[in-house]
Amino acid sequence: MAFGWIEEQDRARREAGLVRVLRPRPAASSLLDLASNDYLGLARHPEVVEGAASAARTWGGGATGSRLVTGTTALHAELESELADFCGFEAALVFSSGYAANLAAVTALAPHGSLVVSDAGNHASLIDGCRLARGTTQVVGHADPDAVRKALATHDGPAVAVSDTVFSVDGDAAPLAALADACRAYGAGLIVDDAHGLGVLGDGGRGAPQGAGL
After folding, report:
1. 65 lies in some domain
2. Is residue 164 a contact partner of residue 121, using CB atoms and an 8 Å limit?
């Protein structure tokens, strides 16, 4: 069988207890969900729900094309402008998911010949972004700016450090100010995933980088 190896891998994963099973949840439940990332409860906020319904009635249920062709609407432009203003940045770009955003950011900002210094505790999306990047990835100890400095000191070309701001598994925060200092010292870029900081940390919820003075 052409794909017999898939069955063999599946069997090995099941025997090792590594198969995850999806558990669909109902629309309404009396259970208290402590695993959600919806920290602010916005997913069911009446204004958010009505806004989504109103947008679907006005714009339809799909983008009809890629962003570069026909898929960018006035809603995209408005949202990106408001996000940029809120966070204090020149511009913003909205993706279909945080996972897609991380893949795009790391691969775009780590060119051929670059060094990518990745925190050992990074989210899978950042890890996959490092794997897809054209540079060389070096994984360093968790939340260790000194290790980042040592890694950057060994490389003469373009370099970036990659880290979550708040690590979703343990809930600890990256030493952003120290990481930024390390990157400045060696002319390197700093890419951070603020999925668990934006809306919660910083002045008015403007995120962990803003809270760290970056």
Report:
1. no
2. yes
Residue among 21, 15, 12 nearest 4 (CA): 12
Task: Please state whether the predicted TM-score (pTM) of the whole model is above 0.85.
Answer: yes
The answer to the question of residue 1 being in a domain is no
Nearby residues of 200 by Cβ (< 8 Å), 6 or more positions away: 39, 40, 166
Residue 10 inside a domain? The answer is no
Domain containing residue 117: CATH number: 3.40.640.10
Q: How far is CA 115 from CA 12, 160, 174, in A?
A: 35, 6, 20
**pLDDT tens by residue, the chain, 214 residues:** 578 899 999 999 999 999 999 988 888 778 888 888 898 999 999 999 999 999 999 999 988 999 999 999 999 999 999 999 999 999 999 999 999 999 999 999 999 999 999 999 999 999 999 999 999 999 999 999 999 999 999 999 999 999 999 998 888 999 999 999 999 999 999 999 999 999 999 999 999 999 999 9
Give the separation between CA 159 and CA 10, rounded to whole angstroms: 38
